[in-house]
Amino acid sequence: MHRDRFYTLTASCPDRTGIIARVTGFIAEHHGWILESSFHADDEADRYFMRIEVKADSLPFMLAEFRTCFAPLANELALDWQITDSAVKKRVVIMVSKQEHCLYDLLARWQSRELNIEIPCVISNHADFRGFVEWHGIPFHHVPVTPDNKPQAYAEVQRLFEESHGDTLVLARYMQILSPELCVAHPGKILNIHHSFLPSFVGAKPYHQAYTRGVTLIGATCHYVTAELDQGPIIEQDVIRIDHADSPDDMVRYGKDIEKTVLARGLRYHLEDRVLVHGNKTVVFR
Amino acid sequence: MHRDRFYTLTASCPDRTGIIARVTGFIAEHHGWILESSFHADDEADRYFMRIEVKADSLPFMLAEFRTCFAPLANELALDWQITDSAVKKRVVIMVSKQEHCLYDLLARWQSRELNIEIPCVISNHADFRGFVEWHGIPFHHVPVTPDNKPQAYAEVQRLFEESHGDTLVLARYMQILSPELCVAHPGKILNIHHSFLPSFVGAKPYHQAYTRGVTLIGATCHYVTAELDQGPIIEQDVIRIDHADSPDDMVRYGKDIEKTVLARGLRYHLEDRVLVHGNKTVVFR
Amino acid sequence: MHRDRFYTLTASCPDRTGIIARVTGFIAEHHGWILESSFHADDEADRYFMRIEVKADSLPFMLAEFRTCFAPLANELALDWQITDSAVKKRVVIMVSKQEHCLYDLLARWQSRELNIEIPCVISNHADFRGFVEWHGIPFHHVPVTPDNKPQAYAEVQRLFEESHGDTLVLARYMQILSPELCVAHPGKILNIHHSFLPSFVGAKPYHQAYTRGVTLIGATCHYVTAELDQGPIIEQDVIRIDHADSPDDMVRYGKDIEKTVLARGLRYHLEDRVLVHGNKTVVFR
Amino acid sequence: MHRDRFYTLTASCPDRTGIIARVTGFIAEHHGWILESSFHADDEADRYFMRIEVKADSLPFMLAEFRTCFAPLANELALDWQITDSAVKKRVVIMVSKQEHCLYDLLARWQSRELNIEIPCVISNHADFRGFVEWHGIPFHHVPVTPDNKPQAYAEVQRLFEESHGDTLVLARYMQILSPELCVAHPGKILNIHHSFLPSFVGAKPYHQAYTRGVTLIGATCHYVTAELDQGPIIEQDVIRIDHADSPDDMVRYGKDIEKTVLARGLRYHLEDRVLVHGNKTVVFR
Questions:
Q1: Which domain does A52 fall in, by range?
Q2: Which residues from chain D sit within 8 angstroms of residue B219, using beta carbons?
Q3: Nearest to C219 by CA among C234, C198, C244
Q4: How near does any CA of chain A get to the CA of D212, in Å?
Q5: D65 and D105 co-located in one domain
Q6: Which of A80, A191, B72, B162 has its CA 20 to 30 A from that of A50?
């Protein structure tokens, strides 16, 4: 963020010898300056993962030409790949319900340019945060959700997301379950923050579940949303210590601090193309 | 917060036998219902510390009468004591410079009533956050500080703090050093968040100091402000892991997450009368 | 441990006014010097919990007489109570299988008197650690367990535990499931260390389950053993961060560090009478 | 450890384009299978660091020939490099005084083959652990240190270390200060565990210093020993939470759990050639 413009190449392919040499060889041939690089072999899946940042002005061509020149090698290695440009801000649509901690947190990070993104709009099933969001110059859409209007409501969400050319949809304590259609339409693009240390306490009221079981740590999980509730690939998690004196209300309060931090970290990894999804798991090149 | 109105008695005295029995005996005599109680004997200082929450409506009298009735026993035990009422909101004045993370965080907690306080005003040496603060309906005072106007500037801060009947002054990443007069005038009332794990890296640019020393964890410290820079009694601290790949800029970014959490926790302990200062140390009844 | 001899009173009772006053009043009447005291009201269960350490030589009587004198008050308050003497070492029987990390760790703590206990014997379903245990002067019993001899084997374990007047039975990575009879016969006396952050990953091979789910933290849980596998009251837990590069074998290795620390902490709380069981939960006065 | 034999190449050089391509190109040319690889550019120092694990039997030659073939490229890139063979166990000499926690911990890890090392001997300034060490079949040398015999004592330590062909000398809570000669003779080979979170609390009785300052977390630091006390490059650190109720003795006890874990982690990184020293800092490829 505080650096020169760069391109980020992420890729995975079947494991074999010479992958790094071939890919970095291509970059070196064109005098590309590598700022950061990470590699990982998943032995079980026999698959290779990589992420490489190249200084944009060290290369003799722009992204489109990179794509053309690189394609033959990518084909040869059977790479599943993408490349992004740090100068193109990602467009992040935020969904929220009635709790403000994640919303305030994300807007503070956006305001200070810690998150170098565009926020084309915020969507909520309640109208509470309209004033706050609009004060920041961000459009706010109130899309109420009732037991009867779900298909229409999520069709509207999908329309808003697409109309605003969103790259990423963040459920920042959005307390409704998205329609399966919406989840399936945007794999690896919808992030949720779940207020438990998954796989413990799936579903509703996880802090109350934690209280009943008598655990000594509570947590939060940032994961990609799939059609199966709270079962998507995990990006980031963290926990905080509690004890017998903490009521479920205390846990809710402590939990908020973990939720917003874990969501912000997971979102950052996602936006910086540090997360590669593989089956129901992730490789996170921190 | 989610409970009935209660009184919080905090006290310390020379250690002897029978302290708990006498104090809780007084409460029991008047049929007081104890919600929470904590006791600590400091062997080195030979001093006893306590904090007791009593349900307000379990007692036959109000705070003023409690004070009168309790005074003889307090004198006998040589108690240094105070009692507060959960129904009386504390008044917290916030000071900030150009970084928004702690300000947004505190206002979100105030907005959601997680912090059950009044914020009579925000004071800053820059004008940047006027709009944001005023949008929340909170008065904003711009008090510029230059090498030449320090005495007048801090006299103005003191005037604003007193005029707004502030109980607590929070330096939420306020990047100037307060005048010794101001510090001395309000012992145990001014909280600062220092961006290092004290006593490491006192003073300016602690993350750069941490980078140079090559530590593997960075931290933040919430402490009471005294006339001696970064030397006041510590209330709360926490750390986060970094590694060789993190630049000072990365550390600044990670550090913010620790800073706002540690400040919020320390402030909560302070506001709930959980912090008893003793010499340059604290007893924190979490 | 580094202090004068003391008695530890632990108790719980239905909540009402005056409990602390009455109990500490009794102690004060007899000039008892309270070293440490903790109280907790469980609002949901409407039950009160306490733990009080009294200096032995500040009282005019010994434990037996304390019991007699205190009984009327205890009856009046409907206390469920016990009192122990720091001069009487608890007798801890250790059970182990083929992994040494918890065994070495516990013996090091016993050797250095960090754990001020007697270890009357170690019981194992394998003979591997006979030499190591006996070198420390501790009797070692090899009680093999096969699919066919379980009832006899656990009858033998029970006989050894009772014959050695054990207070506590510690499963220090004992990889067999105890018989329900043994569990039921010693409620609140058998501690297990489970190699996951319960309630996640109950049962066999939790690290492999964690690997498959792709979590970012793994943990360990010290809990009392009940007849239901991995469902007993939790005493202590902790976690450690992992990432995509960690294989199940790596997790097993990292996990050991958490397991031994969590077991040692949970055991210490138990031995110092800091753990009060209530239903399937604990109050831990750390 | 649980893998096939492999070679580990570690290297650093001035930063330029094409480094990864050239080095991995060399490996690919010889059909080397890369198991793990890490790269880091230190922008400030303008220096590049790398660590690559290559499967031994994927290469057509052994280590000696690798060295010969690789030398021209290494020279061209001005690499400061080394390569090690996972089949050659490192030889680790342990020094200890009167506290057993790190010694028990290291021997348990060695016994279980978690640490795949040889321990040619243990050296101590006290005789206490002779029996324990010798029971494990490891030679024990008692080298007393008095104010008068330091030069001779450390000459003897140096002789024992060299005679046993030690690769690494671990100060596992060895409570004497090594002679500068010994430190200077083995740069990057002597590891110490310091019982504070450096740079806080350098020197003697750090837990007492921490108690006096009233910090809320205490820590431990594993670092390379240099001639300047507690100032060497840091490899690993960690902390644990304490509070006002903890005496210096309690801190000493808690601290031990951190010390042994941090030492074990730091030692593992060192033994697996994951630590590259650069000035007074380290790059640790975890």
A1: 6-85
A2: 217
A3: C198
A4: 26
A5: no
A6: A191
